[in-house]
Amino acid sequence: MCAQTAISMNIVNHGPWQELILGGQKSGKTRRAELAARDWIAGSAGRRAVYLATGQAWDEEMRVRIARHQTDRAQRVPGMQTVEAPRLLAQALQQHSNAQTLVVVDCLTLWLTNWMMPMEGVEFEPNQPLTQDWSAQRALFLEVFPRCPGPVVLVGNEIGMGVIPMGREVRAFVDALGRLNQDVAQACSRVTLMAAGLPLQLK
Predict the structure, then answer these.
(1) Structural domain boundaries, residue 119
(2) What is the DSSP letter of 101?
């Protein structure tokens, strides 16, 4: 058994947990989350996994990227259900989390993007209350996800280590993501930083 699988099996045998997996682009974040879901399902009959996708296909490159992720996910975790949750993430967690279901959230960065920098012409969830803003959704999410009855694996980007481009909106986004990552990490029982496909355990 490989070291990564052994780690995942050690986690899933101890019941519900919350793990935050952070890293840069193509660092192995999503792959690690999907392998955790695969091992969770294999650990006991009746277990299942749900993938909450926050990304939206706002251009051709993103459509190709999403399609590639879907193909890879179907191969790594056959039978895992995919649910689109670009903005109402807390509500999706409440709906799909239970003791027999592991939920993968991929990813927190695109969720924040959909609130702070939405693309024109992109449609989100139907019947979404117009009064809901980012602060309210953030507070609701931080209240809901630590109380989920089943395990939750959250994927996010660590983007604050490099040069931050000029511009008020970009700086505000980087600050908001940094604060979100800190709050989520504090609530999680496990935090992993991915680099070059290798995990570094932070918590």
Answers:
(1) 3-201
(2) E
Q: Report the distance separating Cα 186 and Cα 203, nearest Å.
A: 9
- Residue range 25-72, pLDDT digits in tens: 899 999 999 999 999 999 999 999 999 999 887 678 878 877 887 888
Long-range CB pairs of 127-132, under 8 A, 24+ apart, other chains included: 128/87, 128/88, 132/88
How many domains does the chain fold into?
1
Q: Name residue 41's beta-bridge partners.
A: none
* Catalytically active residues, by annotation: 69
Helical segments of the chain, H only: 3-12, 29-43, 60-76, 89-96, 108-116, 134-144, 168-187
CATH number at residue 103: 3.40.50.300
pTM of the predicted model as reported, rounded to 2 decimal places: 0.85
C-alpha of 127 from chain center: 23
